[in-house]
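Entry:
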Amino acid sequence: MNYPWVAGKAYCFLVHAQADSIAKTTIFTAYFKEKEKSDWQLIASFKRPKSGTYLKGLYSFLENFEPDMGNVTRKVFFGNQWVRDTKGKWLPFNNAQFTGDATANINYRKDYSGGAENDLFYLRNCGFFDDFTILKLNLTRQQTIKQFPQIDFEKLP
């Protein structure tokens, strides 16, 4: 999605998975909106064959698509994350495990980190800093927002 991102601004993402265990397919649908706006934008929807399962192995990431920018530190925050089970119950994400990509796993570069700052998880990479986070470290954050998202699923595009 080509979008005029603004550093420091909060954005919302919503991912839905509709599993069909008989046909062994799953329809994945993703939405996006600016935090202060009410209308969700459809990013994509596709049917994956040979699956038939709901979301599992959830993760977030911070990626650098510009190799020439590897000397510039990037940092992203993740807050107010929730998952809704098949019965409609909302559960907060307050625990995570810090993992790395192939570059981190072979120790090619060690300028990556992740953790919790108050009620936000964060990821940081690039810039050649040396206070990296040990891979597979379990992380916990405080939950200051107790209200789950108010989404009218019937009105989604």
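Residues 1-56 form one domain.
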